[in-house]
Amino acid sequence: MLVHICCSVDSHFFIEKLQQEYPDEKLIGFFYDPNIHPYSEYQLRLLDVERSCQKLGIELIKGEYDFENWMDAVRGLEKEPEKGSRCEVCFDRRFEISAHKAIELGESTMTTTLLVSPKKSQEQLIRSGEVFEETHGVKFIPFDYRKNNGTADQGRVSREQQLYRQDYCGCLYGLSMQRDQQHRLMDEMFSPISKQILPASIEERLELYSHRNELEESGTPYRILKERFLNYRLMRASVKMGSEIIPSYPLFYSTINRTTTEGKIDFEINGQFFLNREEVRFITLDTFNALTSSAYKNTQELMFNAPSIETEMALRTQLSGNPFNTSAIIVVDTIPIEKISLLLETKTYEDTRENLFVWN
Ligand code: SF4
Prior knowledge:
single chain, binds iron/sulfur cluster, five-stranded parallel beta sheet
């Protein structure tokens, strides 16, 4: 039987149940989910599904990430709510490719792990599956593992197995609607030009779960725990002298009261040049290089290839003497001597992130 897989939280429990009920059935997992956005999130879910299938001892086939075709299929349905007609098209698309894969492999039956997700309409899934049964001749089996307290059991299994538990369905449209309703920043979509791995970003999780797999392979005990912290995102920043924009790089957690300010350098203490407004301070790239043991040739290079957030945080603490400091600290090639205009649009917000605790 071909089992279309959407994510490890659904698939691990669902496949475990199938294996218990049908021990003689050969199961083939098929991860085909081009709806997942951004690509890093797709990679993260796939990573966890690979681990889960390995644990369960079933073969996994990866489908193509044909995101453009999926976008074409749902065009015009962007504003539909979850469980609406965009989701129907999304299921149709995933089932069609899964049915083709089943035919290619000579399998006559298929199912989907989406059936166990409490957030999906089983009626919609069954309707979509039955259409492909009629048109493609691949029998769709709608197992119901939600019943008999299945959803609670699924939650227990996902905690015990320390699976990656995503907090949105998958697509860009569902995510943006969900974040709007939660009045939350859609920080999944940030892709900094600095190439840094931002706190609580998908890229950070991808690193964490990859490291988790390495720990498991080496038999090192670990636990994934959530922690609360203060997160930060930089939206836009510039420093202007007259009409000329000066290359500049604000350190992580740089904030000002509003989005813009103007002023002149007032005084200098130990290589830090203080503006006469908003507690803003500037340092030169030479100072930055010296204090972080870096060798950037110019600020532009720093902007496009910044060091880790941890390096920046250590520098901020060193410069300010205060780990809670959120003043704007801006790196420039040379300190501006004339009046400057600063634009700094940022968001600081309470957030949670996963953390890996390792026993020695
Ligand atoms: S909300 Fe989920 S099921 Fe609906 S279209 Fe988006 S990814 Fe597909």
